[in-house]
Amino acid sequence: MPNAVFRWIDRNLLELGREMRLSFLPPLMVYCAAGVSGLTGIVGTFFVKDYLGLSAAFLAALGFWAGIPWALKMPIGHLVDLMWRHKAGLVYFGAMLIAASLAIMIGLIGHPDAMRTVMPVEAWFVLSVLLSPVGYVMQDAVADAMTVEAVPRLDQYGRPIPADTVRLMHTTMQMLGRVAIIGGTVLVSLANVVMFQGSEGLPEADKVAIYLRIYELALIIPLLSVSGVLLGGFLKRREAGRLAALGHSRAEIDRLLHEPEEKTAPNGWILGGSAVFVALTVGIGLSGIEYGQEIIFAASFTIIAVMIARLLRELSAEAARTLLGTVIIIFAFRTLPGPGAGASWWMIDELGFDQSFLSRLDLITSTLTLAGLFLFRRFMAEKSIANIVIFLTIASTLLSLPIIGMFHGLHEWTAAHTGGTVDARFIAIANTALESPLGQVSMVPMLAWIANSAPPHLKATFFAVMASFTNLALSASQLGTKYLNQLYTIAREVRDAASGVITTPADYTELGPLLVTVTLLGLLLPLAAIGLTRLAGLRSA
């Protein structure tokens, strides 16, 4: 038994450390910044709930618009390929947008009256929500391509590295990318636990002061991503010095370090289609036309599908069938609607989940998700996407049942029969402990397969187009969430800030049917997509 345990630790933990390379660190720092972005999540939830009169359906619609920049990852990724030598500029610009978004929230929390003199608080909040993802998608497009560049093709003696070894390094790189993102969430969860410790009984003014400090602390996010790019530049210069010492000319060094194996030519289909997409999105978004979100989604889906069809020509027939089957399954799995903000409001109002408890719950989620990446490492490497999604679909369905049960009083029954031990918080923690490790399992195999299969001259473009398609699924998820919140109306209690008078009473009666509907859709849609791909003769990575 001790030998078996050691072998498992060696294969899943120590081996990963042995495969780590210094060249992996720059993109990992950019990914970690994306994970740290969750630092303001709890604050945002309570700020919206307590200070903004926005409905669950409106927030779901806002989530749709916030997801649109991720569909724009396609032209941004192609731009990264075209200006590869100067890609750091996109990270700097993204960092500026993220800093601006955080600065708006700092102003709203710390100086709301001054902000209100310029435009309504709700408008400022919407602007902040929309600026942030634009910054993150720019940085993410660069980081994705950096992960491909970080895996060497030649060893220290200039000999080609075997294909199996390169494939393993790509898997390791993508695994570490997920670890960096989730590691960032662990760090911010720890920060939230510390910041919200003992906040349950604080006056509202003191809680607002904590909110403000957290947003100020979040300014470290753009600094972290910029530091990753600066480190990447330092490593490039160091490698240039090593190659010069080996006798390579300046032209050879420049080609080895700064140029892909093949020159990237501007793709008129991607640039033209993206220009149409941007013009359509901005025009419809500003016009306020009815069903504008649906029109944008349909147009986005069509444009990105055409781009995928064009890029599939760069692959062999077998690889093209595999990639097509993979993106269909992942799209269906990520397009599942959620219950929306109403479920969080219900947990806060009815179950008494305060900032301190939610921060501890986030810490458990992040820590166990990180542990799950190691626990399921071999499972991710050895199983197909279809098998992984089947497992995740069944597991997620089963793990949604306790929340449905709590809506109908399960926690009251268990607390009564266990002397108060198994209450709502106990069930939430246990459910989170079981569900958290599953969160990132489906993405690592797909990312590793793309990294290993992407043509060298289109690495950022390939990542971006596939990511745009799968991220578009999240926009579809937000649309589905909006429709469900329109079908099942949920309202939280809203009080006037000055008088304390209730302006909107709480109403969670329709949350139960909403949770059941979300669970059934989560079970049926992925299984139907897998069945469809198999009937069509497609494979998955």
Automatic annotation (TrEMBL):
Keywords: Membrane, Transmembrane, Transmembrane helix, Transport
Subcellular location: Membrane
Gene Ontology, cellular component aspect: membrane
InterPro entries: BT1
Keyword flag Transport: yes
Coiled-coil residue spans: none
Major subcellular location class: membrane
Bilayer topology term: Multi-pass membrane protein
The protein's name in its UniProt record: Folate transporter
Species this protein is from: Thauera chlorobenzoica
